Amino acid sequence: MEKYLAIAEILAYVRHNRTPLTVLPPDAVPHDEADGYRVQDALHNLLSPDFGLQVGYKIGCTSAVMQQYLGISHPCAGGLYMGGVHTAGTSLRYNDYVHVGVECEIAVQFANDLMPSGEPFTADDVATAIDAYHPAIEIVDDRYADWRSMDAPTLIADDFFAAGCVLGVPVARGKAPDLLSVIGRAVVNGTEVGRGNGADVLGHPHHALAWLANHLAARGKILRAGDFVLTGSLVQTAWLNAGDHVRMELLGLGSVEVDFKS
């Protein structure tokens, strides 16, 4: 619809020009979260020519620390684009973002499509479709003059802070540890800035994946073979300065690093 496209065009302009969004015009504010996801769909169509095809999803607000930090008590989803998926050890330009931050995550890649059966997806359903897990850094971008003034529908419309990810070496599902025992450490310039574990993600990261699968099914979409999903941060977002070095360590899954050069 024209309304959703008009909002998406504003958000795409911010993304392309790295101009912090102050406030959406009153007639361009998503009415509710369902409206926000409709705008997000329109935004994906606008961004794909420059950012690459959508290759998966991020799930936000799956841990208590992030729900409290953002003041949102339930998971929210955003898109991942091919151009924003990086390999471990890369260097990224700090000035390619408005205000870049990082989060410590367990990522998955799916081996098979998850086709709806008429019953809600469970954690066991999604587990059988997983190919591998990755230690991951989610890259988030505060694209707002004051993100605290933005409501959940607007954040959802704008991919819920998503700006990409850095993926470490994959660990095959059959060789992965019990995710409940995975301890994640966020380290910036050699200093630990956060710590959490797999149980912090809705009790188990597979619960977050089941939420996403059901959320997509309700919108006529599915998780497909090859899709990457960031299951949610184990720690509170760490906002960065130019030149910062980031390392995320996930016990049993490995580690992943990235530099944000000035």
How would you summarize the topology of this molecule?
Blueprint: H1 2-17, H2 33-51, E1 54-60, H3 64-70, E2 76-81, E3 85-87, E4 90-93, E5 100-110, H4 123-127, E6 130-141, H5 152-157, E7 162-167, E8 171-172, E9 183-188, E10 191-197, H6 205-218, E11 228-233, E12 238-239, E13 245-250, E14 254-261
Parallel strand pairs: 1-11, 3-7, 4-14
Antiparallel strand pairs: 1-2, 5-6, 5-11, 5-12, 6-7, 6-8, 9-10, 9-13, 13-14
Main traits of this protein?
alpha+beta; five-stranded mixed β-sheet; Fumarylacetoacetate hydrolase, domain 2; 26% helix; nine-stranded mixed β-sheet
Please characterize this protein's 3D structure.
The model has no long low-confidence stretch (mean pLDDT 96). It is built from six helices and 14 strands. Strands 1, 2, 3, 5, 6, 7, 8, 11 and 12 form a nine-stranded mixed sheet that branches. Strands 4-14-13-9-10 form a five-stranded mixed sheet, with no helix packed on it. With 262 residues, it is α+β, with helices and mostly antiparallel strands. α1 packs across α2 (33-51). GO terms for molecular function: 2-oxopent-4-enoate hydratase activity. Residues 99-258 form the Fumarylacetoacetase-like C-terminal domain. This is Hydratase.
